[in-house]
Amino acid sequence: MFNKIGFRLIFVVAFTSLVIIGVFAYFNVKSQSSSLISEVERHANQLGETVVSSTRFDMMLNQRDRIQQIINSIGTQPQIRDVRIINKIGEIIYSSDSTNINKMVDKRAESCYACHAEDQPLEQISITERTRIFRVHPDSNRVIGIITPIYNEKSCWQADCHAHPKDQKVLGVLDVSISLADVDSAILSSEWKIVGFAVIAILSVGLLIAVFIRRWVSRPVNDLLTGTLQVSQGNLNYAIKEMGDDEIGKLGTSFNNMTKKLAEARMQLFQSDKMASLGRLAAGVAHEINNPLTGVLTYSSFLLKRTKDNPEFQEDLKVIVRETIRSREIVKSLLDFSRQSIPKKSLADISEIIDKAISVIENQLTLNKVKIEKRTEANLPNLTVDANQIQQVIINLLVNASDAIGKDGGVITVFTKQISLAPVGIAQIKKAACPKRHSLIDNDFKIDGLPSLKVKVISGDKEGIAHLDPVYGKHRNNFNVGFKIDKDAKFVCPECNNSIVQQDKLCPLCGAPVLAFEISGQGIYEVCSSENSNWEKWEAVDSGGLREYIEIKVTDTGSGISNEDLPKIFDPFFSTKGQKGNGLGLAVIWGIIDNHNGTINVESELGKGTTFIIRLPLAQQR
Amino acid sequence: MNRAADILVIDDEQVIVDAVVKICALDNYSVDVALNTKAGLEKISKNYYPVIISDIMLPDGDGFEILEAVKKQKKNSVVIMTTGYSTVENAVNSLYKGAVSFIPKPFTVDELLSALYRVNNYQKIIEKQKLLIQQQRIDEILYVTCPAKYLRLGHSTWIFQEREGTVLVGMCDLYMKTIDSIQQIELLNRDDEIEQGISCASLTCSNDRNHKILSPVSGRIVEVNDNVKSNPNLIEKDPYFEGWIYRVIPANIEYEIKYLIPCSSDRI
């Protein structure tokens, strides 16, 4: 209940209005009651003064019965509880309550304390000091009492009765007590009214807010929630109905836009996937259909040739040949479609390419609980690449990473930075020729996935092909030619049998002959012809210094690749995904990166994850 | 080594083998047949066939093994490769590896006969040249090899990388010598895309044979040689300079160049 946004809002608003109205009501009641009390006070004071002045004449004449009568008649008034005149020593001389007459009042009691605190009667005291509010019993009504002092005057001590001496200042006091029952009930009723008002105000504010929150917040938020649930279940056609032009309404519109874009992106992904499968299908169909089609075409065109003198057959056969050629063209266009498009290189921002790749796949990854992080070094220089192909590579790696992560979720991180590497161990020989300019690159014998250098070894009457590592500095040469290479062995070009041994030069380490390969545009690559020595030299590369690369690392927290599978992953048709994959993805990636003169490597630990490292050279190699 | 037949056909499809046998009979060629790589290699090692027509996709291997075997055994056989799986890679790779011609399946009678006609002429020229070398008559020239800085696709077409980054495409003289004089040439237009290993022009010769020319490079045509268009015989007269066909902006020359043979290796 409390985790609903509407309820929380109502609670907060109700609480705030409760506090505000409460504080307001408290002070309101307080001021009302104090003004009521002071009014009563003033009234009582006036009454006291009136009694004193109205009894003055009778006092002069010492007509005690008349004074008592006046006091009695005042005391009968409904609000007045008691009227008393008390003399200097505290004896009640007159009282509207006749039972109290001649009783002594304790001077230390509350009614007297204001004046007698110092044991000295004070002459002038203010109205508030003469007033007191008290209860006779704890559960009886409140009563306000006011004391009006009766001062000695010339006429008093000169009166005939000689009751008061001259030196007395205060002769006594008139004490009027008025019941506060009416005032108290007025205060109580106004308190109740304010509480009632507060309750009604809080309830109505709460209700009003509840209605509007429901209308403006809860309902649209619920709609959005339903929408996101629908989308997360894969229903990308779900659209939220118009929700006005406030922030939530805009959220709804942008939600609709998002799902639309998501649907488009998924469609695109689906489409490109479909295209790829269609391409493979087309290639397969072309192969399967082309053979029978060859039978039809050859036989019909053969018949056409043999029946030159039979115009009747000629007409029909021409139709068969024509239509078969048409079928051939259809198959050919299918193949054209499936063929990889020609790379179109141009200057591109690698960070932008990665962003695009991520945006295509991100939503898919989010649904699989895969988090993707991008860490790109600032100010990376632009690269000359086919942006579409590199994007395809990144997407492919991300999909692979996501597949490796599976359903439990994980993290894919894409690091991009610029690095400088010494060419040793990286520079790859892509073109090598013998003195007669025959290519010595062997595309059929690969060392770590790269076409090797080939050289024919002739030793006596035996001959074989040795393969050398195309990567400068890695020394994974293969001199395994099936026989022992002796000292007098010849090393020649397999095409023209011209020697490729460097004359007048021996390996500085072991003294064996040195082989020389002409690398087009990059001088001569020299390597020791013995497998016992790792000596090699590529002057053009050594003098070139460090080379600049852009390195893209795609790291996942997935299942990893086993050591047996690791060397095979770039082979075409190798797949660990069973029916799901065709085993072409990484092979195509490899081809694309190779086309960009780059390298792609993989590091993996079973159960921990896999990292693909792509390095693209900044300056294109010659 | 005895000459068993004029032609050895290696293909796993019986119907194609039969068709090839019948077609070859039209031009009076005798034909021997192998239905897989193993049988083919066996026949090649035992006998001599001037011409071998081999499928690339075979049940127990591929046609490239046949090519290797022929090269290794130093037979003078010429090889025509054919496949239904006509990827560019296949066509270009087989030419790079020494096949003299590549015919994508399905082919017509005329296409096969044209190819046979060409490779037979090719063989005659090569044999004649060997004879000349043996007789030390080096100054007699049967065909002009292409200039040193050119690169060629098999023996059919060449490219020359110009300084501006464009590439000139033309026909090799050896190929021109294997066909009759050109009667008609069909060329693509400016701005058309061409692709390495895919037909980019078609020649019709005086003996009515039609020959399709495989492009040595992929890219966009920026210029078509109008002189050749109006006078096709210019190619025969000056195949390497005046007789160029297209000027192309290459799309992926760095990659495609590995299937091209540097003409400098032709010098003897």
Summary, kept brief:
Chain A is an alpha+beta fold. Chain A has helices spanning 5-60, 64-75, 110-116, 127-130, 154-157, 181-232, 247-306, 311-338, 350-367, 387-405, 539-542, 585-595, and strands spanning 80-87, 92-95, 131-135, 142-151, 170-179, 346-348, 370-376, 383-385, 410-421, 441-447, 450-459, 462-468, 490-492, 501-506, 513-518, 524-528, 536-538, 547-556, 599-605, 609-617.
Give the SSE layout.
The complex is a heterodimer of chains A (622) and B (268).
Chain A: H1 5-60, H2 64-75, E1 80-87, E2 92-95, H3 110-116, H4 127-130, E3 131-135, E4 142-151, H5 154-157, E5 170-179, H6 181-232, H7 247-306, H8 311-338, E6 346-348, H9 350-367, E7 370-376, E8 383-385, H10 387-405, E9 410-421, E10 441-447, E11 450-459, E12 462-468, E13 490-492, E14 501-506, E15 513-518, E16 524-528, E17 536-538, H11 539-542, E18 547-556, H12 585-595, E19 599-605, E20 609-617
Parallel strand pairs in A: 7-9
Antiparallel strand pairs in A: 1-2, 1-5, 3-4, 4-5, 6-8, 9-18, 10-11, 11-12, 11-13, 14-15, 15-16, 16-17, 18-20, 19-20
Chain B: E1 7-10, H1 14-26, E2 31-34, H2 37-46, E3 51-55, E4 57-58, E5 61-62, H3 63-72, E6 78-83, H4 88-96, E7 101-104, H5 109-134, E8 151-153, E9 157-161, E10 167-171, H6 173-177, E11 182-187, E12 193-194, E13 199-205, E14 210-214, E15 219-224, H7 226-230, H8 233-237, E16 246-250, H9 253-256, E17 261-262
Parallel strand pairs in B: 1-2, 1-3, 3-6, 6-7
Antiparallel strand pairs in B: 4-5, 8-9, 8-17, 9-10, 10-16, 11-13, 12-15, 13-14, 15-16
Helix pairs in contact in B: 2-3
